[in-house]
Specification:
Elements lengths: L4 E5 L3 H12 L3 E5 L20 E2 L7 E3 L2 H10 L2 H10 L4 E4 L2 E4 L4 H14 L3 E3 L4 E6 L5 E5 L2 E5 L1 E4 L14 H8 L5 E6 L3 E3 L11 E10 L2 E12 L3 E3 L1 H15 L5 E5 L6 H12 L8 H5 L5 H10 L13 H12 L1 E8 L7 E5 L17 E3 L6 E3 L4 H17 L4
Parallel strand pairs: 1-2, 1-11, 2-7, 11-20
Antiparallel strand pairs: 3-6, 4-21, 5-6, 8-9, 9-10, 12-19, 13-16, 13-18, 14-15, 14-17, 15-16, 17-18
Helix pairs in contact: 1-4, 1-11, 9-10
Length: 410
């Protein structure tokens, strides 16, 4: 009996997982990768440490048009399944606050382990092969064209990513293939990415890092909030809390909505604690200290100097002679510093691409409802997660499930 021939388009996280899984099921597997090496994008994940999963796996940590369907996929391949998969290819894991990393904290080790397993299983790896077309052949097989060659497969898994980090291979070409196969696309935007702001004075506070809560304001309402280490850049804002809200911000901007970010640099101060802070500061008004000295120790000096200037105060003036409303304005800025968002960095800087092929257009086996025999895995689908290993888990999960189904075992 002849082996099922499976072609995997895309040699990223989802594609390599799919290829390994299908080969383990006895299929004859070929991976077609557009760049010169498999797993390039993995090297930049988790700041090079590869946060490959999370103990607190929950569908609520994802954005998707079909959350119930997504929950079903995550139930079939959860965190323990991912742990077993990586232990099975020799990757030792360590845990930090629920986040999973390779024990050596090197993304290259994960890339290498996946590649070694592909080689051990006899998976054919064709690099520098940019796929240009996928179609049903007259023979009934699926013809894949790319790199000046033509390949025939019984089944094909599209795992060619979205648009994030195009230099690593995810350049959006997979979306074009999906559209030619009859699929629609949920509009895409960069996600887990830095935001650009219109204020011109940010260069003076660039490089400042601070624990803060940020709120996204649009249409007169607070539509999202996140807390964590905020990083101020010369063009806007960065850091995990910014990444977490960036997809929402980009969709709002795409709809023509005005978006502002309000920053609270004193997130641990409730109303009572804040009143006590103001009272304790009142005592400092009695001596001869300067305005600068009065606010010393509250926030990073660069921020405090910016807020003093914004309130119309001069750092060297005596604080007891300062305008009380101006002093109150400085305190307000510490809790309500508001910036106008003009956009985000491009897909070149984004960790993930939001949008893609809707889950409603694949079966619960991740098979295309438009072209039977074609399966989808990874970022090409309209599923994206928050920071914390969720996006890589989706790659492992969908790659595994799509391959099991394509190999006739799912």
């Amino acid at each position: 009996m002849s082996r099922i021939k499976i072609g995997v388009i895309g040699g990223g996280a989802a594609g390599m997982t799919a290829a390994i899984t299908a080969a383990r099921q006895g299929a004859e597997v070929t991976v077609l990768e557009g760049t010169d090496r498999l797993g390039k994008k993995l090297l930049s994940t988790g700041n090079g440490k590869c946060n490959l999963g999370n103990r607190n796996l929950d569908v609520k940590e994802y954005y998707c048009g079909e959350p119930e369907k997504l929950a079903g996929f995550l139930e079939r391949f959860g965190t323990e399944d991912a742990v077993s998969f990586f232990q099975g290819i020799g990757v030792m894991l360590k845990e930090k606050n629920g986040l999973l990393y390779p024990a050596c904290e090197q993304a290259s080790a994960v890339q290498d382990a996946l590649r070694y397993e592909l080689t051990a299983l006899g998976v054919r790896q064709v690099t520098a092969c940019k796929v240009s077309d996928v179609e049903r052949d007259v023979s009934g097989e699926i013809r894949v064209s790319g790199g000046g060659e033509s390949f025939l497969f019984d089944r094909v898994i599209l795992a060619c990513g979205g648009k994030a980090a195009p230099k690593t291979g995810s350049d959006g070409s997979g979306f074009a293939l999906a559209k030619r196969l009859g699929h629609s696309l949920t509009p895409t935007v960069p996600a887990l990415v830095q935001l650009k702001c219109g204020e011109t004075y940010l260069k003076g506070v660039a490089g400042v890092r601070a624990d803060a809560q940020i709120s996204v304001l649009s249409g007169g309402e607070r539509v999202a909030a996140e807390r964590g280490e905020l990083q101020i850049t010369d063009y806007g804002l960065s850091g995990i809390p910014v990444f977490q809200v960036s997809r929402l911000v980009n969709y709002l901007l795409a709809d023509g909505k005005e978006v502002r970010i309000c920053v609270d640099f004193l997130p641990d101060y409730g109303r009572e604690e804040y009143e006590r802070l103001l009272t304790s500061r009142e005592l400092l008004l009695r001596d001869g200290r300067t305005v600068e000295a009065y606010f010393t120790g509250m926030l990073h000096k660069k921020l405090m100097m910016l807020f003093l200037r914004s309130a119309g105060l001069k750092p060297g003036d005596a604080v007891r002679d300062a305008d009380r409303k101006a002093l109150e304005e400085v305190f307000r800025l510490c809790r309500e510093w508001t910036l106008h968002v003009t956009g985000s960095n491009s897909y070149d800087n984004a960790q993930v691409c939001a949008g893609g092929v809707p889950l409603s257009e694949v079966t619960d086996r991740l098979e295309s409802v438009r072209t039977p025999g074609v399966y989808f895995a990874g970022e090409i689908l309209d599923v994206d997660g928050k920071c914390g290993g969720y996006n890589l888990h989706w790659a492992w999960c969908s790659g595994y499930l799509a391959a099991m189904a394509a190999a006739g075992e799912g």
